[in-house]
Amino acid sequence: MPEAVQEFVKARRFLKERLQRDYTTLRGYSEERSNVRQLLQRTAEMGESNSLLLIGPRGAGKTTVSMKKMVKPSQLARFRPQQLINAVLTDLLDNKAFVDNTLIVHLDGNLHTDDRLALKSITVQMRLENVADGKVFGSFAENLAFLLQCLKSGGKRAKSVVFLLEEFDLFCTHHNQTLLYNLFDVSQSAQAPICVLGVTCRLDVIELLEKRVKSRFSHRQVFLFPSSDQFEQYAALCQELLSLPTNSSLKSAAERVNSLQMLRSEALSFGRRHFDPAAYTFDSRFRDGWNKQLAKMLATQPAQRTLQTLYDFDISEAFLKTFLFRLVAQLREESPHITADQMAALAAHYEADDKVELLCGLSVLELCLIIAVKHHSEIYDRDPFNFEIIFARFSKFAKVSTTMQGVERSIVLKAFEHLRIGELILPLSSGTGSGSGKVQKEFEMHKMALTYGQIQQAVQRYQALPTEVAQWSQSSLI
Known about the structure:
Helix content is 51%, strand content 8%. It has helices at residues 3-21, 30-46, 83-91, 96-101, 115-125, 129-132, 140-149, 168-171, 178-189, 211-214, 231-242, 247-258, 270-273, 284-298, 301-313, 317-329, 340-351, 354-360, 364-379, 387-400, 409-421, 452-461, 467-474; strands at 50-55, 102-108, 152-153, 157-158, 160-166, 194-200, 221-223, 425-427, 446-448. Helix 19 (364-379) crosses helix 20 (387-400). The longest helix has 19 residues, at 3-21. The radius of gyration is 30 Å and the shape is flat. The N and C termini lie far apart (68 Å).
């Protein structure tokens, strides 16, 4: 295999792995990251108990902020949910007191569906299953208190425990919220140095807590919301994610990834699944040529328009990484460089409207009924309609049409029912056939579940649509 082809295959594999399995790189959120890091640091060094909630939309990077330290404040903040916590924990690996004196317990609301499963997982992660085996506890609180007491070392000093609760809102659905109550109670009463860190996407999560639980929560909340007015940084992020790093940067990244082995938690698997930068080195000529061509392509107007479209569609970094992964996966040896046309073609898939695709799959008769519904809605300001109203409007068109003449009423009614089954029109009542009050299906009122723009797009894209139907869609005059 020629050397250039080998470099290309290696670069493609590297970009795909970095886009998929880089769990610790965090861009932005410097203030929020500092707050979480200081909170965990005080728990490890001073034995201070705390509780905090990270709240933000899915893909905002809540879980990544907790583990890392290599990001400039000016960089754009767009992340997957787990990267916030991962980044802060990676930051704290340089702190010997944190590494030696802290246990990390990771719980997920999707996995630990009740307090019994959560307590069993806590016991295993704290490596106390042998100590607790055979003991009889009267309550959940006694069991948890015993586990925390086991961490006491020397009587005056206790190991700190960091509880990471993913999908925190699901823990609020547990019976009596016993787990949350006891964790917050321990953190408030300073029985043992623990830090409870909840991660959720629900803004109303505090209202889900019972009164007794809410009173023991510190009410510290960190909100993570991406900004919607930083397109220049979004474009710079795209270039960064597709660029090839220098060998020295790869070496420093490999050292950072290797330090993740210091995390003594079997539940936190991101360190084991993280891609290995040490497995890659790039020829300087190939790297410089790749980066130069990439910068030139991204500076063109078509590429900027595509990025603007993506930015308007979804501003999260997680979405951008998914898009770029699909883009890189399309590269071949014959065309080893990313082009603006490839970006535009892939972005078109995200702009596709499912309703328009569905309309393009209808028969001509069904599309004619949709056009009749459109004209009725335009004239009567989206008033409800029934089959009889639409059939009367369709019949006027059918009389002067060469393609729709002679269509029987029963066939038109069947086509109307097919539109209802496809939810292109929706009944006003909750009835399935006869409607409320036993109204015949021909007289049951419906509303349109489409926009005028969607109908117009479907008419323009419909293959072999009769000219008279296309003209009728433009004007209700016959």
